[in-house]
């Protein structure tokens, strides 16, 4: 499997060759091509990935809306901690347990819902704008991938992985410096530099979807067991969470002006 900036897509088990996001075998949609090897477990199909991703994202959205509507903003910190712990368990154990994946999704939904609810009181409508923006970027990058407008090449992969690591280091440095100097490095203070940094993060998150789609595509092609569709859904969810946070932050900067 190709290198990807998303740790949730690394080292997935493989099997035979099957349908991908943009390729269908002679046997028909979701069925093995003639002569493809069989495995003890049913291989993953496009339907598996789409269904599990929709359930995961839908759970997060429902949890977020309910949290924002109920005003239980105090749940933000506990939910963030729970989400972090569950994500580490899923990543390091490479678990395809639907309970862990959905638990992570709900926890992140509560965290994002609480954060959005607080900001929406100050900047009415910002939550809806962030949701629409995130959905638009996701759909746009899926279209770009399926049409082949941008090919996932080793060079592009290295660029995205390097850029992701770079912004991660900058975020950590900004956090550390903020303990000793108000505003840190100026990456999150609403300044033109902060706006530019958020735009950069949004761009990297968007392009990370291409790597995520390609990794999922390769997992389907290689006949990865169907249960790992939950693992792929988790990986896509982590990118969605990052993208939503960056879009929400950028909208906040523009509303402050």
From TrEMBL:
Classification from the root reads: Bacteria, Bacillati, Actinomycetota, Actinomycetes, Pseudonocardiales
Supply the InterPro entries for this chain: BaxI_1-like
Signal peptide region: none
Pfam families on file: BaxI_1
The molecule here is called: Uncharacterized membrane protein, YccA/Bax inhibitor family
Transmembrane parts of this sequence: 71-92, 99-119, 125-144, 156-181, 193-216, 228-245
User: Lipoprotein among the record's keywords?
Assistant: no
Entry keyword set: Membrane, Transmembrane, Transmembrane helix
Keyword match Transmembrane = yes
